[in-house]
Automatic annotation (TrEMBL):
The lineage of its organism: Bacteria, Bacillati, Bacillota, Bacilli, Bacillales. It holds the Pfam family Thioredoxin_3. InterPro entries: AhpF_NTD_C (IPR044141), AhpF_NTD_N (IPR044142), Alkyl_hydroperoxide_Rdtase_suF (IPR012081), FAD/NAD-bd_sf (IPR036188), FAD/NAD-binding_dom (IPR023753), Ferredoxin-NADP_redctase_2 (IPR050097), Pyr_nucl-diS_OxRdtase_2_AS (IPR008255), Thioredoxin-like_fold (IPR012336). PANTHER family: THIOREDOXIN REDUCTASE 1-RELATED-RELATED (PTHR48105). This is Alkyl hydroperoxide reductase subunit F. Its cofactor is FAD. Keywords: Disulfide bond, FAD, Flavoprotein, NAD, Oxidoreductase, Redox-active center. Residues 208-491 form the FAD/NAD(P)-binding domain. NCBIfam families: AhpF. Homodimer. It comes from Exiguobacterium aestuarii.
Length: 507
């Protein structure tokens, strides 16, 4: 079932197993069951430490990953291939006794959790956000006997997905109740459980030389450049990696023909850690004030001080801001076609936005769904011509220009979209089951009062990355840079760090 190249790589990982593992399989006579049996038997044939037993589990087809004398609580319902194959490999290693790559404080937090927690994560194998959630919950199950986790492939359990009206992945349930949607790191899950750090955890931190606010490409680049100067550097990140974590294919990162967002972020994080930078993840800044030092107040009440600050808070998906968008988010309104597209297989969807992101989304979705309607506000599409040519070659796509979206309709979930023709002023309604919003980005700068911003909310910077506030610099998508690209953000992060260092030398 596995390709030769994958088996060769897998063989190297399986040699790292430290103890025996039992795969208990609940299988029927269906195709998915047969393929799942083929996979687990193939795994067992590759390592003497893996054995397979037949069992009856809550879901069929599924299999659990256990130690011979202990149920770990890790279950895969469906076949964990695609993006989830790594989740399976890590589960095998960690259940066998190999320690997960988690810091000691986080391990202690997980082990100290009391009570019974049964997590269920609904995923799609094409979702690049889902493995983070699956792997985090599996680690928690390995480290705490009171925690269990079942990964459920929505394509293999369509009836269950329909009954629970799951229209976005990953979707996590805890003890039968909704827990969260979208990408969540291990630290984010622990924070939702109430075990994250409070303000007291930051009270003994000395002032920094450079404090970077934001952990995307610009922030990581700025932190590395600052730390290489031998000065005390910290990062405050609401989510390390930022929106790059939600990016699938990256083909314009010079020197790398192809990579994926999560893989690039992992490299950035590893590089940052090489320099001993103080990374404070899952922390959101809410106030900046310039006194003798620059002060950054966090939402948990903690105040951090620094000689200089680099703002690299990035941007977020722009909302279309019509009735129904917020009400039906994750109930038919989505923002990631790679992640949520498979849940709309055979259904009708709309894509709002005719730029590169929107047209790429429409092309991607056209191979999965029944029909795609593209709504563009302007009189013509703004995407690259090569993308437009590809789009117009598809038989199940309709493009409507001069369309002003007025409402996303539905009852308990999306059932249509309404728009007004800007040419005729006539109102129209399209019946469908999903809407993907792809209309660009808005900078994460709402919390800044003293820093100059333009009418788009972007921070105004000079050629050194400096803002109007002495000692405060900015970089990346939150600034008035002409183009919003990963490689440009990295360059501007380096510029801001060098600018901050020059400022400290002179002051």
């Amino acid at each position: 079932m596995l390709e030769a190249a994958i088996k060769q790589q897998l063989d190297q990982y399986l040699q790292l197993m430290e103890g025996d593992v039992v795969l208990r399989v609940s299988a029927g006579e269906d195709k998915v069951s047969n393929e799942m049996l083929e996979l687990v038997n193939e795994l067992a044939s590759m390592s003497s430490r893996i054995s397979v037993e037949r069992a009856t589990l809550e879901r069929t087809p599924s299999f659990s990953v256990n130690r011979p004398s202990e149920e770990t609580g890790i279950v895969f319902a469906g076949i964990p291939l695609g993006h989830e194959f790594t989740s399976l490999v890590l589960a095998l290693l960690q259940v066998s006794g190999r320690a997960p790559k988690v810091d000691a404080d986080t391990i202690k937090q997980i082990q100290n959790i009391e009570g019974t927690y049964h997590f269920e994560s609904y995923i799609s194998l094409s979702c690049h956000n889902c493995p983070d959630v699956v792997q985090a919950l599996n680690v928690m199950s390995v480290l705490n006997p009171n925690i269990t986790h079942t990964m459920i492939d929505g394509a293999a359990f369509k009836d269950e997905v329909e009954v629970k009206e799951i229209m976005a992945v990953p979707t996590v349930f805890l003890n039968g109740e909704s827990f969260g949607n979208g990408r969540m790191s291990l630290e984010e899950i622990l924070a939702k459980l109430g075990t994250g750090p409070d303000a007291s955890a930051f009270s003994d931190k000395d002032p920094y030389d450079v404090l970077v606010v934001g952990g995307g490409p610009a922030g990581a680049s700025a932190a590395v450049y600052a730390a290489r100067k031998g000065i005390r550097t910290g990062i405050i990140a609401e989510r390390f990696g930022g929106q790059v974590m939600d990016t699938m294919g990256i083909e314009n990162f010079i020197g790398t023909a192809y990579t994926e967002g999560p893989k690039l972020v992992a490299s950035l994080e590893e590089h940052v850690k090489e320099y001993g930078i103080d990374v404070m993840n899952l922390q959101r800044a809410k106030r900046l004030e310039k006194n003798d030092l620059v002060e950054i107040e966090l939402e948990n009440g903690a105040v951090l001080k620094s000689k200089s600050v680099i703002l690299s808070t990035g941007a977020r998906w722009r909302n279309v801001n019509v009735p129904g968008e917020a009400e039906f988010k994750n109930k038919g309104v989505a923002y990631c076609p790679h992640c949520d597209g498979p849940l709309f297989e055979g259904k009708r969807v709309a894509v709002i936005g005719g730029g590169n992101s929107g047209i790429e989304a429409a092309i991607d979705l056209a191979g999965i769904v029944k029909h795609v309607t593209v709504l563009e506000f302007a009189s013509e599409l703004k995407a690259d011509q090569v993308l437009q040519d590809r789009l117009h070659s598809l038989p199940n796509v309709t493009v409507i220009t001069n369309a002003q979206t007025t409402e996303i309709t539905g009852t308990d979930k999306v059932n249509g979209i309404s728009y007004v023709s800007r040419e005729t002023n006539e109102s129209h309604h399209v019946e469908l089951e999903g809407v993907f919003v792809q209309i660009g980005l808005v900078p994460n700068t709402d919390w800044l009062d003293s820093v100059e911003r333009n009418n788009f909310g972007e921070i105004v910077v000079d050629r050194h990355g400096a803002t109007n506030v002495p000692g405060v610099f900015a970089a990346g998508d939150c600034t008035n840079s002409a183009y919003k690209q990963i490689i440009i953000s990295m360059g501007s992060g380096a510029t801001a760090a060098l600018g901050a260092f020059d400022y400290m030398i002179r002051n």
